[in-house]
Design a protein that fits this description.
Strand content: 15-25%
Distance between the termini: 67 Å
Largest sheet: 6 strands, antiparallel
Number of domains: 2
CATH topology of the largest domain: Cathepsin B, Chain A
CATH class of the largest domain: Alpha Beta
Number of helices: 7
Strand order of the largest sheet: 1-6-2-3-4-5
CATH architecture of the largest domain: Alpha-Beta Complex
Order of helices and strands: HHHEHEEEEEHEEHEH
Radius of gyration: 22 Å
Helix content: 25-40%
Amino acid sequence: MKYMKSMKLNTIHGKNRYCGPAAISAITGASTDDAAYAIRQRSGQRFVKGAAIPYVIAALRDSGVFADRVYSAPVGKGLTFAQWRKHSKADRKAGVVYLIVAGNHYQVVSGRKATCGRLREIVSIADKRLKQRARVYAVWKLSASKITPPSQPKRAKDLNASARSKARRLATQHGCKIDIDQGYDGERNHYWVFGPDHVEAHEDYIFSGDHIAYDWVDVVDRIERIAAFAETLD
């Protein structure tokens, strides 16, 4: 396999604030939102807050980045990040990128520089704002011949925009209410869909205790199902 001679740290950008997508952003140059989409494609998550290691590694591989584990230790028993920094000094060079999990947090290092989702900027590896005392669980040395940053399909965004107007029209028609919640993962909005009071109060209501939708397409589906259920009550 032909590997590129060097890799670099990229400035983390995007709305998603969690460290898994941030690590992928730093490595590939993608936005954290597109990185979260890549993780969701592997994990099946509706939205990404925590990201398990296998899904992050798989998302990187999908982008053409390969990870070779060069250090691991039992949870809570490894070197601190500061200790690893000193032990790896001779091996860390500009153009070589490492993915590190320490203190249940992803950090990305190259040479004397590092970044993570908490900082969202490239800083000295000795910066105290990094988790210097956190115990290192694992370190991967990364390599690639060509990096293809993950991206969300544009058609999905267009479909969601079309569904928005339909959802609002149906809500008015069937007496439903839609509340919009700015997503708590910073990645997307969430939508709370409520049927008419007499429908919500019915003992056989199909969405009893379950009002959340994750996009406008989901909102449309819920309202149509609420309307169909309401017809059975007439």
